[in-house]
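HOLO CASE FILE
Compound: magnesium ion
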Amino acid sequence: MSADDSTTDPATTGDIGDLPQHVAMIMDGNGRWAKQRGLTRSEGHREGAKAVRMAVTKSRELGIRHLTLYAFSSQNWSRPKAEVDSLFSLLVEFCENEKQLMIDKGIRLNLIGDRDPLPLVARAAVKAVEAATRRNRDMVLHVAVNYGGREELVRAARRIAEDVARGVLSPADVDERAIESRLWTAGVPDPDLIIRTSGELRVSNFLLWQLAYAEMYVDECLWPDFDWPRYELALRSYTRRERRFGGVG
Ligand code: IPE
Ligand code: IPE
Ligand code: MG
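Model generated. Tokens follow.
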């Protein structure tokens, strides 16, 4: 982050403590939020986009280097077509509406997941923002779309097998690094903090490898209600914890 950056306000950030360098979020509860109001699930997702903007802007202001948002899982294709279509339309809108913000704030967009099956218009919109922001260094916004942790590990295993078959990798050299470097998140530090909204106590196929030592935080609120005071509480909870990584602390 540049020294003259006016978006970082020490008055609001100084007292939280040692912030995570990578926060991951399972944005859950849009459907329930809509149902409570007699709205369609798609309208719930649209409302959820506001919380996305909050999470991106606040993370950037705080100097968090990586933010990963779970937007669409490999399993979410099983939802009604109208809902799936609306999620990809929202992705396109997000790319169009937030492109300038990402350019202005030094945020790089990086999609993780298998993008090939996505509608062409969504792929193109993402690619355009990735290209426009590829030199940005202040924060990376990783958006997980058609992402599954198991799918990611299967793909890494297949790539390792191909490299062994081609003779460029020996089985004895298959170590953590060999796997990590073949994930969609290759080179990205593991999340320090994982936040899930809507009270569910499960990971739902998100970042299975990368979450090994992440601190977990579950907020009871539904994703569209996830605002800055709630995000701040999650960060404060994180900074109070003792991380041990298998040691004795
Ligand atoms: C948003 O919440 C997560 C996405 C898959 C886009 P949901 O759509 O899962 O909402 P709930 O869990 O049904 O309330
Ligand atoms: C996880 O939420 C996926 C995303 C947030 C994109 P789901 O709503 O799909 O997960 P389950 O079905 O509750 O496990
Ligand atoms: Mg859900």
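CASE NOTES: Residues 19-148+190-239 form a domain with the Undecaprenyl pyrophosphate synthetase fold (CATH 3.40.1180.10). The pocket of IPE (ligand 1) is lined by residues 27-32, 45, 72, 76, 87, 198, 223 (CB under 6 Å).
CLOSED: yes
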